[in-house]
Amino acid sequence: MALIETSLIWVTYAVALAILFFIAGIFVFIYQKPSERSASVTIVCFITVFALLATVLLMPVDIALTSSTTNRKLGTKKDWATPDAVDNILFQLKVVYYTLYSLDAVLCLLVVPFTFFFYEEYDEVAAEEGSQTIGHRLWGAFKYTIGFLVLVLILFLVGFFIPVAKKARDEHKDLGYFKDLLTQNHGERALTFSIGILLTIGTILYCLYTAPGLALLPLSLIKTAPRISAPQIAASSSSQLAQNRERQRQLEGRNEGREGGLDARDRRELEALVREERTLVRRERLAAESSGEGSNFLIKAWVKIEAVFRPLKLIGGLLLLVITLIIFASMLITCIDKIKNSVCRSSCGFLLGETQIFNPVNSLMTFTSKVFPIDYILFLLLTMLFFAASVLGVATIGIRFLWVTLFKIRQRHTSPSAMLIATVLLTLMVFALNYSLAMIVAPQYATFGPQTYCDRPSRHPDEQPDCSNHKKAIKPCSERSDNPVANMVCTPSVVSTFLNRITVNFPYLGVVDFWAQFAFLGIFLLVFVVMLFRVPKLDEEQLDDDLREEEEEGLLASTGRRFGATWQDITGQAKGVKRANYGAAGSGDGEEGGEAAGHGEQGGAGRDSNW
Q1: pTM, rounded to two decimals
Q2: Containing H/E element for 120?
Q3: How far is CA 177 from the centre of its chain?
Q4: Residue 476 forms beta bridges with which residues?
Q5: Is 382 in contact with 395 (CB distance < 8 Å)?
Q6: Of 221, 227, 223, which is closest to residue 290 (Cα–Cα)?
Q7: Apex CA 73: angle with CA 68 and CA 77, to 5°?
Q8: pLDDT digits (tens, 9 = 90+) for 24-61
Protein backbone atom coordinates (compact mmCIF):
# COMPACT_ATOMS: atom_id res chain seq x y z
CA MET A 1 0.00 0.00 0.00
CA ALA A 2 2.82 2.39 0.88
CA LEU A 3 4.61 1.66 -2.39
CA ILE A 4 1.45 2.28 -4.41
CA GLU A 5 0.74 5.57 -2.61
CA THR A 6 4.25 6.97 -3.03
CA SER A 7 4.44 5.76 -6.62
CA LEU A 8 1.23 7.58 -7.53
CA ILE A 9 2.64 10.78 -6.03
CA TRP A 10 5.80 10.50 -8.14
CA VAL A 11 3.70 9.69 -11.23
CA THR A 12 1.76 12.90 -10.64
CA TYR A 13 5.04 14.79 -10.53
CA ALA A 14 6.06 13.15 -13.82
CA VAL A 15 2.79 14.34 -15.41
CA ALA A 16 3.47 17.86 -14.09
CA LEU A 17 6.96 17.72 -15.62
CA ALA A 18 5.42 16.84 -18.97
CA ILE A 19 3.19 19.92 -18.70
CA LEU A 20 6.19 22.05 -17.72
CA PHE A 21 8.07 20.70 -20.74
CA PHE A 22 5.51 22.28 -23.05
CA ILE A 23 5.24 25.47 -20.98
CA ALA A 24 9.01 26.02 -21.11
CA GLY A 25 9.05 25.34 -24.85
CA ILE A 26 6.15 27.69 -25.52
CA PHE A 27 7.78 30.46 -23.48
CA VAL A 28 11.07 30.22 -25.38
CA PHE A 29 9.35 29.90 -28.76
CA ILE A 30 6.99 32.84 -28.22
CA TYR A 31 9.59 35.35 -27.06
CA GLN A 32 12.52 34.46 -29.31
CA LYS A 33 13.06 36.51 -32.44
CA PRO A 34 12.55 34.07 -35.34
CA SER A 35 15.23 35.57 -37.57
CA GLU A 36 17.91 35.36 -34.86
CA ARG A 37 17.23 31.95 -33.33
CA SER A 38 20.31 30.11 -32.13
CA ALA A 39 20.26 26.40 -31.31
CA SER A 40 22.54 26.74 -28.28
CA VAL A 41 20.58 29.67 -26.84
CA THR A 42 17.24 27.93 -27.40
CA ILE A 43 18.37 24.70 -25.72
CA VAL A 44 19.94 26.43 -22.72
CA CYS A 45 16.95 28.72 -22.14
CA PHE A 46 14.57 25.80 -22.44
CA ILE A 47 16.50 23.58 -19.99
CA THR A 48 16.91 26.43 -17.50
CA VAL A 49 13.22 27.40 -17.47
CA PHE A 50 12.21 23.75 -17.26
CA ALA A 51 14.59 23.08 -14.34
CA LEU A 52 13.51 26.09 -12.30
CA LEU A 53 9.81 25.29 -12.68
CA ALA A 54 10.49 21.65 -11.80
CA THR A 55 12.18 22.84 -8.59
CA VAL A 56 9.15 24.83 -7.44
CA LEU A 57 6.65 22.11 -8.32
CA LEU A 58 8.54 19.55 -6.27
CA MET A 59 7.08 21.19 -3.15
CA PRO A 60 3.60 19.57 -3.32
CA VAL A 61 5.27 16.19 -3.91
CA ASP A 62 7.39 16.80 -0.84
CA ILE A 63 4.32 17.68 1.24
CA ALA A 64 2.29 14.73 -0.07
CA LEU A 65 5.08 12.21 0.63
CA THR A 66 5.75 13.41 4.16
CA SER A 67 2.01 13.63 4.90
CA SER A 68 1.45 10.11 3.59
CA THR A 69 3.31 8.75 6.64
CA THR A 70 0.54 9.81 9.04
CA ASN A 71 -3.09 8.90 9.55
CA ARG A 72 -4.68 12.32 9.85
CA LYS A 73 -8.01 10.89 11.13
CA LEU A 74 -6.32 9.32 14.16
CA GLY A 75 -3.28 11.59 14.47
CA THR A 76 -0.83 8.67 14.40
CA LYS A 77 1.92 7.28 12.23
CA LYS A 78 0.85 4.61 9.78
CA ASP A 79 2.02 1.07 10.45
CA TRP A 80 4.44 1.03 7.53
CA ALA A 81 5.92 4.45 8.44
CA THR A 82 8.80 3.17 10.52
CA PRO A 83 11.70 5.55 11.24
CA ASP A 84 13.74 3.83 8.51
CA ALA A 85 10.92 4.17 5.98
CA VAL A 86 10.44 7.87 6.79
CA ASP A 87 14.19 8.50 6.60
CA ASN A 88 14.27 6.79 3.21
CA ILE A 89 11.52 9.10 1.89
CA LEU A 90 13.29 12.17 3.26
CA PHE A 91 16.59 11.03 1.76
CA GLN A 92 15.03 10.63 -1.70
CA LEU A 93 13.52 14.09 -1.48
CA LYS A 94 16.80 15.61 -0.33
CA VAL A 95 18.65 14.05 -3.25
CA VAL A 96 16.12 15.42 -5.75
CA TYR A 97 16.04 18.86 -4.08
CA TYR A 98 19.80 19.25 -3.85
CA THR A 99 20.17 18.04 -7.43
CA LEU A 100 17.64 20.55 -8.74
CA TYR A 101 18.95 23.43 -6.63
CA SER A 102 22.52 22.68 -7.70
CA LEU A 103 21.42 22.40 -11.34
CA ASP A 104 19.62 25.75 -11.12
CA ALA A 105 22.68 27.40 -9.59
CA VAL A 106 25.08 25.93 -12.19
CA LEU A 107 22.80 26.92 -15.06
CA CYS A 108 22.34 30.43 -13.68
CA LEU A 109 25.98 31.13 -12.78
CA LEU A 110 27.95 29.13 -15.34
CA VAL A 111 26.04 27.62 -18.27
CA VAL A 112 23.92 30.65 -19.21
CA PRO A 113 26.87 33.12 -18.98
CA PHE A 114 29.03 30.75 -21.06
CA THR A 115 26.28 30.49 -23.70
CA PHE A 116 25.91 34.29 -23.69
CA PHE A 117 29.60 34.85 -24.37
CA PHE A 118 29.69 31.99 -26.89
CA TYR A 119 26.90 33.66 -28.87
CA GLU A 120 28.44 37.12 -28.63
CA GLU A 121 31.80 35.75 -29.85
CA TYR A 122 30.31 34.88 -33.22
CA ASP A 123 31.65 37.04 -36.06
CA GLU A 124 29.84 36.41 -39.34
CA VAL A 125 32.58 37.88 -41.52
CA ALA A 126 35.35 35.98 -39.75
CA ALA A 127 33.34 32.77 -39.89
CA GLU A 128 32.82 33.12 -43.65
CA GLU A 129 36.51 33.81 -44.18
CA GLY A 130 37.39 30.77 -42.08
CA SER A 131 39.45 32.70 -39.53
CA GLN A 132 36.99 31.92 -36.68
CA THR A 133 36.32 28.33 -35.68
CA ILE A 134 34.17 26.72 -33.02
CA GLY A 135 37.32 26.23 -30.95
CA HIS A 136 38.06 29.96 -31.00
CA ARG A 137 34.51 30.74 -29.88
CA LEU A 138 34.63 28.15 -27.11
CA TRP A 139 37.93 29.49 -25.80
CA GLY A 140 36.74 33.11 -25.95
CA ALA A 141 33.53 32.24 -24.08
CA PHE A 142 35.48 30.25 -21.48
CA LYS A 143 37.83 33.17 -20.78
CA TYR A 144 34.93 35.45 -19.94
CA THR A 145 33.17 32.75 -17.92
CA ILE A 146 36.19 32.31 -15.63
CA GLY A 147 34.96 35.30 -13.61
CA PHE A 148 31.67 33.55 -12.91
CA LEU A 149 33.53 30.35 -12.02
CA VAL A 150 35.57 32.29 -9.47
CA LEU A 151 32.33 33.75 -8.08
CA VAL A 152 30.89 30.25 -7.59
CA LEU A 153 34.06 29.08 -5.83
CA ILE A 154 34.00 32.13 -3.54
CA LEU A 155 30.37 31.48 -2.62
CA PHE A 156 31.09 27.87 -1.71
CA LEU A 157 34.27 28.68 0.20
CA VAL A 158 32.56 31.42 2.21
CA GLY A 159 29.62 29.12 2.91
CA PHE A 160 32.02 26.32 3.88
CA PHE A 161 33.86 28.32 6.53
CA ILE A 162 31.36 30.97 7.64
CA PRO A 163 30.07 30.31 11.18
CA VAL A 164 26.37 29.72 11.62
CA ALA A 165 24.22 31.71 14.05
CA LYS A 166 23.64 29.94 17.36
CA LYS A 167 21.89 32.72 19.20
CA ALA A 168 18.42 31.43 18.34
CA ARG A 169 19.24 27.93 19.53
CA ASP A 170 20.75 29.18 22.80
CA GLU A 171 17.74 31.40 23.52
CA HIS A 172 15.20 28.66 22.68
CA LYS A 173 16.74 25.44 23.95
CA ASP A 174 13.27 24.06 24.59
CA LEU A 175 12.50 24.06 20.86
CA GLY A 176 14.11 20.95 19.39
CA TYR A 177 13.68 21.96 15.78
CA PHE A 178 16.22 24.78 16.21
CA LYS A 179 18.84 22.16 16.92
CA ASP A 180 17.84 20.26 13.82
CA LEU A 181 17.99 23.34 11.61
CA LEU A 182 21.50 24.40 12.60
CA THR A 183 23.70 22.80 9.97
CA GLN A 184 26.71 20.83 11.12
CA ASN A 185 27.82 19.44 7.74
CA HIS A 186 30.17 21.90 6.03
CA GLY A 187 29.26 20.81 2.51
CA GLU A 188 25.56 21.21 3.22
CA ARG A 189 26.29 24.56 4.84
CA ALA A 190 28.12 25.75 1.71
CA LEU A 191 25.18 24.80 -0.52
CA THR A 192 22.72 26.38 1.91
CA PHE A 193 24.68 29.64 2.00
CA SER A 194 25.05 29.77 -1.81
CA ILE A 195 21.35 29.19 -2.41
CA GLY A 196 20.57 31.71 0.33
CA ILE A 197 22.63 34.38 -1.46
CA LEU A 198 20.94 33.65 -4.79
CA LEU A 199 17.56 33.67 -3.04
CA THR A 200 18.24 37.10 -1.51
CA ILE A 201 19.35 38.54 -4.86
CA GLY A 202 16.29 36.99 -6.45
CA THR A 203 14.06 38.54 -3.79
CA ILE A 204 15.13 42.01 -4.93
CA LEU A 205 14.28 41.14 -8.54
CA TYR A 206 11.09 39.46 -7.31
CA CYS A 207 9.97 42.78 -5.81
CA LEU A 208 10.97 44.83 -8.86
CA TYR A 209 9.48 42.57 -11.55
CA THR A 210 7.01 40.04 -10.13
CA ALA A 211 5.11 42.57 -7.98
CA PRO A 212 4.32 44.92 -10.92
CA GLY A 213 3.60 41.91 -13.12
CA LEU A 214 1.15 40.46 -10.60
CA ALA A 215 -0.70 43.79 -10.47
CA LEU A 216 -0.68 44.21 -14.25
CA LEU A 217 -1.73 40.68 -15.19
CA PRO A 218 -5.46 40.84 -14.33
CA LEU A 219 -5.77 44.49 -15.30
CA SER A 220 -4.18 43.84 -18.69
CA LEU A 221 -6.82 41.22 -19.42
CA ILE A 222 -9.60 43.57 -18.33
CA LYS A 223 -8.47 46.89 -19.80
CA THR A 224 -6.53 46.09 -22.97
CA ALA A 225 -9.00 43.78 -24.68
CA PRO A 226 -9.70 44.64 -27.38
CA ARG A 227 -6.67 46.65 -28.38
CA ILE A 228 -8.03 47.95 -31.72
CA SER A 229 -10.45 46.54 -34.26
CA ALA A 230 -9.53 45.28 -37.72
CA PRO A 231 -12.37 47.20 -39.40
CA GLN A 232 -11.41 50.31 -37.43
CA ILE A 233 -7.76 50.16 -38.43
CA ALA A 234 -8.68 49.46 -42.06
CA ALA A 235 -11.12 52.37 -42.26
CA SER A 236 -8.84 54.78 -40.43
CA SER A 237 -5.84 53.84 -42.56
CA SER A 238 -7.94 54.14 -45.72
CA SER A 239 -9.00 57.66 -44.77
CA GLN A 240 -5.47 58.75 -43.92
CA LEU A 241 -4.09 57.11 -47.05
CA ALA A 242 -6.52 59.04 -49.26
CA GLN A 243 -5.51 62.33 -47.59
CA ASN A 244 -1.86 61.42 -47.92
CA ARG A 245 -2.11 60.74 -51.65
CA GLU A 246 -4.18 63.86 -52.22
CA ARG A 247 -1.46 65.94 -50.53
CA GLN A 248 1.19 64.25 -52.68
CA ARG A 249 -0.84 65.11 -55.80
CA GLN A 250 -1.09 68.73 -54.67
CA LEU A 251 2.66 69.02 -54.13
CA GLU A 252 3.45 67.44 -57.48
CA GLY A 253 0.86 69.64 -59.25
CA ARG A 254 2.10 72.83 -57.57
CA ASN A 255 5.67 72.22 -58.63
CA GLU A 256 4.90 70.87 -62.10
CA GLY A 257 6.93 72.65 -64.75
CA ARG A 258 9.18 74.34 -62.19
CA GLU A 259 12.87 74.37 -63.10
CA GLY A 260 14.90 72.27 -60.75
CA GLY A 261 11.83 70.37 -59.56
CA LEU A 262 10.59 70.61 -55.99
CA ASP A 263 12.16 73.06 -53.59
CA ALA A 264 13.87 71.72 -50.45
CA ARG A 265 10.89 72.17 -48.13
CA ASP A 266 8.40 70.50 -50.47
CA ARG A 267 10.86 67.68 -51.18
CA ARG A 268 11.21 66.93 -47.47
CA GLU A 269 7.44 66.96 -47.06
CA LEU A 270 6.96 64.67 -50.06
CA GLU A 271 9.54 62.21 -48.75
CA ALA A 272 7.77 62.16 -45.38
CA LEU A 273 4.43 61.56 -47.12
CA VAL A 274 5.88 58.65 -49.10
CA ARG A 275 7.19 57.04 -45.90
CA GLU A 276 3.84 57.57 -44.21
CA GLU A 277 2.07 56.04 -47.22
CA ARG A 278 4.12 52.86 -46.91
CA THR A 279 3.21 52.60 -43.24
CA LEU A 280 -0.50 53.08 -43.95
CA VAL A 281 -0.41 50.41 -46.66
CA ARG A 282 1.18 48.02 -44.18
CA ARG A 283 -1.56 48.76 -41.65
CA GLU A 284 -4.28 48.16 -44.21
CA ARG A 285 -2.77 44.87 -45.29
CA LEU A 286 -2.43 43.70 -41.69
CA ALA A 287 -6.04 44.66 -40.95
CA ALA A 288 -7.23 42.74 -43.99
CA GLU A 289 -5.28 39.63 -43.00
CA SER A 290 -6.35 39.79 -39.35
CA SER A 291 -10.02 40.01 -40.38
CA GLY A 292 -9.66 37.02 -42.72
CA GLU A 293 -10.11 39.02 -45.92
CA GLY A 294 -9.13 36.93 -48.91
CA SER A 295 -8.91 33.79 -46.78
CA ASN A 296 -10.97 30.65 -46.97
CA PHE A 297 -14.20 30.04 -45.07
CA LEU A 298 -12.52 28.31 -42.12
CA ILE A 299 -10.18 31.23 -41.41
CA LYS A 300 -13.02 33.72 -41.59
CA ALA A 301 -15.15 31.56 -39.30
CA TRP A 302 -12.29 31.31 -36.79
CA VAL A 303 -11.90 35.10 -36.73
CA LYS A 304 -15.62 35.54 -36.01
CA ILE A 305 -15.65 32.85 -33.31
CA GLU A 306 -12.60 34.41 -31.67
CA ALA A 307 -14.36 37.78 -31.60
CA VAL A 308 -17.58 36.29 -30.17
CA PHE A 309 -15.78 34.59 -27.27
CA ARG A 310 -13.51 37.52 -26.52
CA PRO A 311 -15.74 38.72 -23.63
CA LEU A 312 -14.58 35.61 -21.76
CA LYS A 313 -11.25 37.35 -21.52
CA LEU A 314 -12.89 40.07 -19.46
CA ILE A 315 -14.49 37.49 -17.18
CA GLY A 316 -11.16 35.72 -16.79
CA GLY A 317 -9.50 39.00 -15.92
CA LEU A 318 -12.07 39.74 -13.21
CA LEU A 319 -11.66 36.25 -11.75
CA LEU A 320 -7.90 36.62 -11.80
CA LEU A 321 -8.23 39.99 -10.08
CA VAL A 322 -10.13 38.41 -7.19
CA ILE A 323 -7.53 35.62 -6.88
CA THR A 324 -4.68 38.13 -6.92
CA LEU A 325 -6.26 40.23 -4.16
CA ILE A 326 -6.77 37.10 -2.03
CA ILE A 327 -3.09 36.23 -2.47
CA PHE A 328 -2.15 39.79 -1.52
CA ALA A 329 -4.27 39.54 1.64
CA SER A 330 -2.76 36.15 2.53
CA MET A 331 0.79 37.46 2.19
CA LEU A 332 0.00 40.51 4.31
CA ILE A 333 -1.65 38.35 7.01
CA THR A 334 1.36 36.05 7.24
CA CYS A 335 3.80 38.96 7.47
CA ILE A 336 1.78 40.48 10.32
CA ASP A 337 1.55 37.06 11.99
CA LYS A 338 5.34 36.67 11.80
CA ILE A 339 5.93 40.09 13.33
CA LYS A 340 3.53 39.45 16.22
CA ASN A 341 4.13 35.76 16.92
CA SER A 342 7.62 34.86 15.71
CA VAL A 343 9.43 32.88 18.39
CA CYS A 344 12.79 34.54 17.78
CA ARG A 345 12.08 37.49 15.46
CA SER A 346 15.17 38.85 13.70
CA SER A 347 17.59 36.38 15.29
CA CYS A 348 16.16 33.60 13.09
CA GLY A 349 14.70 35.53 10.17
CA PHE A 350 11.20 35.78 11.72
CA LEU A 351 10.62 32.05 11.80
CA LEU A 352 6.96 31.29 12.60
CA GLY A 353 6.43 28.25 14.78
CA GLU A 354 2.65 28.17 14.31
CA THR A 355 0.20 30.21 12.25
CA GLN A 356 -2.20 32.01 14.58
CA ILE A 357 -4.07 34.29 12.16
CA PHE A 358 -6.42 32.88 9.53
CA ASN A 359 -4.80 32.79 6.09
CA PRO A 360 -7.25 32.01 3.24
CA VAL A 361 -4.73 30.56 0.77
CA ASN A 362 -2.96 28.56 3.47
CA SER A 363 -6.28 27.15 4.73
CA LEU A 364 -7.46 26.26 1.23
CA MET A 365 -4.21 24.48 0.34
CA THR A 366 -4.14 22.59 3.65
CA PHE A 367 -7.77 21.50 3.26
CA THR A 368 -7.37 20.33 -0.36
CA SER A 369 -4.14 18.49 0.46
CA LYS A 370 -6.27 15.87 2.22
CA VAL A 371 -7.25 14.62 -1.26
CA PHE A 372 -4.16 14.46 -3.45
CA PRO A 373 -3.70 15.70 -6.22
CA ILE A 374 -6.25 18.52 -5.82
CA ASP A 375 -3.71 20.61 -3.92
CA TYR A 376 -1.11 19.81 -6.59
CA ILE A 377 -3.36 21.18 -9.32
CA LEU A 378 -4.01 24.35 -7.30
CA PHE A 379 -0.32 24.73 -6.54
CA LEU A 380 0.53 24.29 -10.23
CA LEU A 381 -1.93 27.05 -11.14
CA LEU A 382 -0.58 29.27 -8.35
CA THR A 383 2.99 28.74 -9.54
CA MET A 384 2.04 29.48 -13.15
CA LEU A 385 0.32 32.68 -11.99
CA PHE A 386 3.47 33.94 -10.30
CA PHE A 387 5.65 32.80 -13.21
CA ALA A 388 3.39 34.56 -15.73
CA ALA A 389 3.51 37.68 -13.52
CA SER A 390 7.31 37.52 -13.51
CA VAL A 391 7.43 37.18 -17.31
CA LEU A 392 4.96 40.05 -17.73
CA GLY A 393 6.99 42.20 -15.35
CA VAL A 394 10.20 41.58 -17.30
CA ALA A 395 8.41 42.18 -20.61
CA THR A 396 6.84 45.42 -19.37
CA ILE A 397 9.81 46.94 -17.58
CA GLY A 398 12.57 45.45 -19.71
CA ILE A 399 16.12 44.72 -18.65
CA ARG A 400 17.43 47.96 -17.21
CA PHE A 401 20.36 49.46 -15.42
CA LEU A 402 18.78 52.18 -13.29
CA TRP A 403 16.72 54.19 -15.82
CA VAL A 404 18.61 52.99 -18.91
CA THR A 405 16.88 50.21 -20.88
CA LEU A 406 19.46 47.65 -22.02
CA PHE A 407 17.15 45.08 -23.60
CA LYS A 408 13.45 44.84 -24.39
CA ILE A 409 11.65 41.55 -23.86
CA ARG A 410 8.79 41.30 -26.35
CA GLN A 411 7.00 38.47 -28.08
CA ARG A 412 8.85 37.35 -31.23
CA HIS A 413 11.21 40.31 -30.94
CA THR A 414 13.64 39.23 -28.19
CA SER A 415 17.26 38.81 -29.21
CA PRO A 416 19.22 35.74 -28.03
CA SER A 417 21.32 37.85 -25.64
CA ALA A 418 18.20 39.33 -24.07
CA MET A 419 16.62 35.85 -23.81
CA LEU A 420 19.62 34.55 -21.85
CA ILE A 421 19.66 37.51 -19.47
CA ALA A 422 15.89 37.25 -18.97
CA THR A 423 16.31 33.54 -18.20
CA VAL A 424 18.86 34.34 -15.47
CA LEU A 425 16.50 36.92 -13.98
CA LEU A 426 13.62 34.45 -14.01
CA THR A 427 15.80 31.81 -12.34
CA LEU A 428 16.67 34.17 -9.51
CA MET A 429 13.04 35.26 -9.18
CA VAL A 430 11.88 31.65 -8.96
CA PHE A 431 14.34 31.10 -6.07
CA ALA A 432 12.56 33.95 -4.30
CA LEU A 433 9.17 32.57 -5.38
CA ASN A 434 10.03 29.27 -3.72
CA TYR A 435 10.64 31.12 -0.43
CA SER A 436 7.53 33.26 -0.78
CA LEU A 437 5.17 30.35 -1.51
CA ALA A 438 6.54 28.20 1.31
CA MET A 439 7.12 30.83 4.00
CA ILE A 440 4.64 33.63 3.22
CA VAL A 441 1.73 32.54 1.02
CA ALA A 442 0.99 29.14 2.62
CA PRO A 443 3.41 28.46 5.52
CA GLN A 444 1.40 25.80 7.38
CA TYR A 445 0.66 23.89 4.18
CA ALA A 446 4.29 24.01 3.07
CA THR A 447 5.57 22.74 6.42
CA PHE A 448 3.23 19.95 7.51
CA GLY A 449 0.39 19.86 5.02
CA PRO A 450 -2.65 18.04 6.52
CA GLN A 451 -0.64 16.14 9.16
CA THR A 452 -2.19 15.82 12.62
CA TYR A 453 -1.18 14.31 15.97
CA CYS A 454 -3.01 13.01 19.04
CA ASP A 455 -2.51 15.55 21.82
CA ARG A 456 -2.84 13.09 24.70
CA PRO A 457 -0.22 11.65 26.99
CA SER A 458 1.26 8.31 25.91
CA ARG A 459 1.54 5.34 28.25
CA HIS A 460 5.09 4.55 27.21
CA PRO A 461 7.83 6.80 25.78
CA ASP A 462 7.82 5.17 22.32
CA GLU A 463 4.09 4.46 22.17
CA GLN A 464 1.58 6.65 20.33
CA PRO A 465 -1.57 7.66 22.25
CA ASP A 466 -4.98 6.55 21.04
CA CYS A 467 -7.43 9.27 19.95
CA SER A 468 -10.04 7.02 18.38
CA ASN A 469 -12.48 8.05 21.12
CA HIS A 470 -11.11 11.56 21.61
CA LYS A 471 -11.49 13.30 18.25
CA LYS A 472 -11.18 16.75 19.82
CA ALA A 473 -7.65 15.89 20.93
CA ILE A 474 -6.51 15.51 17.30
CA LYS A 475 -4.67 18.73 16.42
CA PRO A 476 -2.79 20.00 13.36
CA CYS A 477 0.98 19.55 13.50
CA SER A 478 3.05 22.61 14.32
CA GLU A 479 6.64 23.32 15.23
CA ARG A 480 5.67 24.66 18.66
CA SER A 481 3.75 21.65 19.94
CA ASP A 482 4.43 21.03 23.64
CA ASN A 483 3.55 17.35 23.48
CA PRO A 484 6.59 15.18 22.62
CA VAL A 485 4.24 12.94 20.64
CA ALA A 486 4.18 15.64 17.95
CA ASN A 487 7.89 15.15 17.29
CA MET A 488 7.26 11.43 16.94
CA VAL A 489 4.32 11.75 14.53
CA CYS A 490 4.83 14.99 12.58
CA THR A 491 7.38 15.11 9.76
CA PRO A 492 8.17 18.57 8.34
CA SER A 493 8.64 18.85 4.60
CA VAL A 494 12.15 18.93 3.22
CA VAL A 495 11.64 22.29 1.49
CA SER A 496 10.48 24.01 4.71
CA THR A 497 13.43 22.55 6.59
CA PHE A 498 15.84 23.74 3.90
CA LEU A 499 14.42 27.28 3.76
CA ASN A 500 14.21 27.55 7.55
CA ARG A 501 17.80 26.35 7.71
CA ILE A 502 18.82 29.32 5.57
CA THR A 503 17.02 31.84 7.78
CA VAL A 504 18.21 30.28 11.06
CA ASN A 505 21.84 29.67 10.11
CA PHE A 506 22.17 33.02 8.33
CA PRO A 507 19.57 35.30 9.96
CA TYR A 508 20.74 38.42 8.10
CA LEU A 509 19.60 36.76 4.87
CA GLY A 510 16.30 35.80 6.50
CA VAL A 511 15.69 39.36 7.69
CA VAL A 512 16.25 40.76 4.19
CA ASP A 513 14.01 38.13 2.63
CA PHE A 514 11.24 38.79 5.16
CA TRP A 515 11.16 42.59 5.05
CA ALA A 516 11.38 42.47 1.26
CA GLN A 517 7.90 40.94 1.29
CA PHE A 518 6.56 44.28 2.53
CA ALA A 519 8.35 45.98 -0.35
CA PHE A 520 6.69 43.46 -2.68
CA LEU A 521 3.26 44.26 -1.26
CA GLY A 522 3.90 48.01 -1.43
CA ILE A 523 5.03 47.92 -5.07
CA PHE A 524 2.09 45.70 -5.97
CA LEU A 525 -0.36 48.11 -4.35
CA LEU A 526 1.22 51.17 -5.98
CA VAL A 527 1.18 49.70 -9.49
CA PHE A 528 -2.32 48.32 -9.00
CA VAL A 529 -3.77 51.70 -7.95
CA VAL A 530 -1.99 53.59 -10.75
CA MET A 531 -3.04 51.13 -13.47
CA LEU A 532 -6.58 50.98 -12.12
CA PHE A 533 -7.15 54.61 -13.14
CA ARG A 534 -4.84 54.76 -16.14
CA VAL A 535 -6.29 54.37 -19.62
CA PRO A 536 -4.15 52.06 -21.81
CA LYS A 537 -2.83 53.60 -25.02
CA LEU A 538 -1.79 52.00 -28.27
CA ASP A 539 1.89 52.46 -29.08
CA GLU A 540 1.58 53.37 -32.76
CA GLU A 541 5.30 53.84 -33.26
CA GLN A 542 6.07 50.39 -31.85
CA LEU A 543 3.29 48.86 -33.95
CA ASP A 544 4.66 50.42 -37.13
CA ASP A 545 8.17 49.23 -36.31
CA ASP A 546 6.86 45.71 -35.79
CA LEU A 547 4.96 45.78 -39.07
CA ARG A 548 8.01 47.03 -40.96
CA GLU A 549 10.22 44.40 -39.41
CA GLU A 550 7.75 41.59 -40.05
CA GLU A 551 7.30 42.68 -43.64
CA GLU A 552 11.03 42.55 -44.16
CA GLU A 553 11.15 39.06 -42.67
CA GLY A 554 8.10 37.83 -44.57
CA LEU A 555 6.16 37.26 -41.36
CA LEU A 556 3.35 39.71 -41.86
CA ALA A 557 0.71 37.00 -41.86
CA SER A 558 1.29 36.03 -38.24
CA THR A 559 -1.92 34.90 -36.59
CA GLY A 560 -0.82 35.83 -33.11
CA ARG A 561 -1.88 39.47 -33.29
CA ARG A 562 -4.91 40.63 -31.39
CA PHE A 563 -7.02 43.07 -33.36
CA GLY A 564 -10.66 43.73 -33.12
CA ALA A 565 -13.20 45.38 -30.95
CA THR A 566 -15.66 42.58 -30.31
CA TRP A 567 -18.73 43.91 -32.10
CA GLN A 568 -16.78 45.48 -34.95
CA ASP A 569 -14.96 42.24 -35.70
CA ILE A 570 -18.24 40.31 -35.62
CA THR A 571 -20.07 42.72 -37.96
CA GLY A 572 -17.02 43.74 -40.01
CA GLN A 573 -18.06 47.41 -39.79
CA ALA A 574 -16.11 50.30 -38.28
CA LYS A 575 -17.95 52.75 -36.08
CA GLY A 576 -17.53 56.47 -36.59
CA VAL A 577 -15.20 56.29 -39.61
CA LYS A 578 -16.26 56.14 -43.25
CA ARG A 579 -14.02 53.97 -45.34
CA ALA A 580 -12.61 55.82 -48.30
CA ASN A 581 -13.31 54.34 -51.72
CA TYR A 582 -9.82 54.87 -52.94
CA GLY A 583 -9.59 51.67 -54.95
CA ALA A 584 -6.79 49.16 -54.97
CA ALA A 585 -3.19 50.07 -54.40
CA GLY A 586 -1.05 50.03 -57.47
CA SER A 587 1.67 48.01 -55.82
CA GLY A 588 1.49 45.54 -52.95
CA ASP A 589 4.12 47.15 -50.76
CA GLY A 590 3.25 50.76 -51.34
CA GLU A 591 6.69 51.61 -52.69
CA GLU A 592 5.31 53.83 -55.45
CA GLY A 593 3.58 56.66 -53.67
CA GLY A 594 0.54 58.00 -55.47
CA GLU A 595 0.17 55.39 -58.22
CA ALA A 596 -3.05 53.88 -56.85
CA ALA A 597 -6.51 54.63 -58.08
CA GLY A 598 -8.75 56.94 -56.14
CA HIS A 599 -5.83 59.29 -55.76
CA GLY A 600 -7.82 62.37 -55.03
CA GLU A 601 -10.63 61.18 -52.80
CA GLN A 602 -10.96 62.32 -49.23
CA GLY A 603 -11.74 59.74 -46.61
CA GLY A 604 -14.40 61.68 -44.73
CA ALA A 605 -12.37 61.65 -41.53
CA GLY A 606 -9.41 63.62 -40.30
CA ARG A 607 -5.87 62.32 -40.01
CA ASP A 608 -6.31 61.81 -36.27
CA SER A 609 -9.62 59.94 -36.56
CA ASN A 610 -9.86 57.10 -34.03
CA TRP A 611 -6.36 55.74 -34.67
Answers
A1: 0.76
A2: helix 112-120
A3: 34
A4: 452
A5: no
A6: 227
A7: 45
A8: 999 888 888 887 888 889 999 999 999 999 999 999 99
